[in-house]
Amino acid sequence: MRASLQGLPFKTGYRMIDGARYYENEVQVGVGVRQSGVKREDVFITSKVFHNDFTYDGTIAALKDSIANLGYSYYDLYLTHSATGGKDARLAAYRALLDGKASGMIKSVGVSNYSAKHIEEIREAGLEMPVVNQLELHPFCQQKPIVEYCRKNNIIVQAYSPLLRGALDNPVIQEVSAKYSKDPAQILIRWSMQRGFVPLPKSSQRERIISNGQVFGWNIEPMDMEKLDALDRGKEGAITWNPVDVD
Predict the structure, then answer these.
(1) What is the number of other CB atoms lying within 10 angstroms of the CB of residue 215?
(2) Contact 75, 66 (CB under 8 A)
(3) Which residues are catalytically annotated?
(4) How far from the centroid of its chain's Cα atoms is residue 153's Cα?
(5) Whose CA is closest to 192, among 166, 167, 212?
(6) Is there a contact between 70 and 42 (Cβ–Cβ < 8 Å)?
């Protein structure tokens, strides 16, 4: 996010910020919170460790560096960024995050881009289950098997790339947008919310940051939700790396 916009999300009501070491935005997140005047305890901050650091010691070092970057003593949520690297590596990283939680550096531990197989490895190892699985989710890529697994296991599903990276010209999305007098991005965010996900919209434009938060107090009717649901193309609908099927 540009420096000139760092405080805007807080001024318009946002209280959850999704970061990652790979994004190299941890420092900016901390600066934005301090400049906003919002108390640290009133903001929910997430970061992630990338698979390049997936050893126990590497993950602990990454977490400590993330804390230093943020300039606060803890993260509300910290995730393994993907399941890449193999079973032993991801379990080592996950154990490190659990120890980071025990030491107070993290309040909650989760995963990103994990399939049911990867989460079952955690259960079989006798470890605390993740509270969150962050996935690419939008009408074209609905990830139904892992979403259903997460729901059955009380794992919160966060949806990244809910806005299709700006590719909003689909006729169905445009039709629903016109019907409700909402912009396409608002329709996609609202669809995500009504499907029970926690959408993570991203924008570097002032107007979009504001409008993306104006998604409360109205609903998409069931028949229109069904139209959006029908856009699902499974894995073929993914617009990002979507590595949920890695070994």
Answers:
(1) 19
(2) yes
(3) 23
(4) 18
(5) 212
(6) no
